[in-house]
């Protein structure tokens, strides 16, 4: 057998690339290297702005030319960094050499030694990861998440008054409305969204063991903590003043745990909608040209929600692992985070892919009101809860002397299928006030939904 030509291993870079390609702008090796160049360039500008070590501030044109190294970062730089790393065997050192080359090309050799000045690789890396992850969340993940919430909210409003039989423990239970049930998910997801949107993104820039030791030896009179804080905050990040060689990654653990939590709520949504489809509450809208089964032409498989389930599980497995492991680094530094952080994009990629599937799936279903009504009409026994509750209220009010209303209704309904006529006959003979009796005689399963419709307004 002849060998295949080179192939990607991850389906995120193959079959599903179109759905996650936006993440590659940030959570790829190229995106990370562009951020590294940004950090190196901005550090140069900070040092020269303060005229440290005899340097002079760069003029506007020089700063613009340096910052263009970031905005114009492309395939040429990607290839050049690969070439440099093949020699250096060190990714951050390759970035330093690239920046030095560009300084020479711009006639700025005089400040070349300020490139990567007093910085350890982690000073560059932690800021670069914070920049790329925050951008990926802000520009890609959160907008996609919001799109799902918006679509779900629209379905919530559309179905808010559609009564349906609930199933607690999988058994017929007090009715609700489809809109109210979907509103529960909207409420949960919006709460998590606020937490994720407000997540901290911290950075450090304090040298090999977080002590500014090299900085102070080079220039004892400089206020290095203030310079560091202003530099980090100038990148749009929060400053972490107390670290070892590494930024402690706690903000990452918080973020990944929250995204994983969102994944799990979405997983619950996907399994519920899948179940409603299997029960006939939702019908799937046929898509032109689509095949549900290779042998059964009648089938429309709920593939969008099944794919979402699998990708949410993969995403959470990766993000949970990152959250658990990144918070530990032996003594002042180890390199376990070097490999793990390269999988941040994989964790987010599977989540984005799942969001795309859910969004598409929500657009390919419609409610079957006939099925909802039929299911309610064949389960009159669920009104046993209403009847025994009203009897208890009547006993308390002195309008009934019935002993143990719960047991009375349990005897009538438990494990039995009864109809409207059975309940009408039962209620008609009850010793309760006339108003209560009339309310019960007028009650139907479809009308026994309490405040379900109006509860949806809690989302506004």
UniProtKB/TrEMBL annotation:
GO terms for molecular function: N6-(1,2-dicarboxyethyl)AMP AMP-lyase (fumarate-forming) activity. Pfam families: ASL_C, Lyase_1. It is an enzyme of class 4 (lyase). GO terms for biological process: IMP biosynthetic process. Residues 14-308 form the Fumarate lyase N-terminal domain. It comes from the Bacteria. Its EC number is 4.3.2.2. Residues 329-449 form the Adenylosuccinate lyase PurB C-terminal domain. InterPro entries: Fumarase/histidase_N, Fumarate_lyase_CS, Fumarate_lyase_fam, Fumarate_lyase_N, L-Aspartase-like, PurB_bact, PurB_C. Keywords: Lyase, Purine biosynthesis. Pathway: Purine metabolism; IMP biosynthesis via de novo pathway; 5-amino-1-(5-phospho-D-ribosyl)imidazole-4-carboxamide from 5-amino-1-(5-phospho-D-ribosyl)imidazole-4-carboxylate: step 2/2; Purine metabolism; AMP biosynthesis via de novo pathway; AMP from IMP: step 2/2. NCBIfam families: PRK09285.1. Catalyzes two reactions in de novo purine nucleotide biosynthesis. Catalyzes the breakdown of 5-aminoimidazole- (N-succinylocarboxamide) ribotide (SAICAR or 2-[5-amino-1-(5-phospho-beta-D-ribosyl)imidazole-4-carboxamido]succinate) to 5-aminoimidazole-4-carboxamide ribotide (AICAR or 5-amino-1-(5-phospho-beta-D-ribosyl)imidazole-4-carboxamide) and fumarate, and of adenylosuccinate (ADS or N(6)-(1,2-dicarboxyethyl)-AMP) to adenosine monophosphate (AMP) and fumarate. This is Adenylosuccinate lyase. It comes from Glaciibacter psychrotolerans. The lineage of its organism: Bacteria, Bacillati, Actinomycetota, Actinomycetes, Micrococcales.
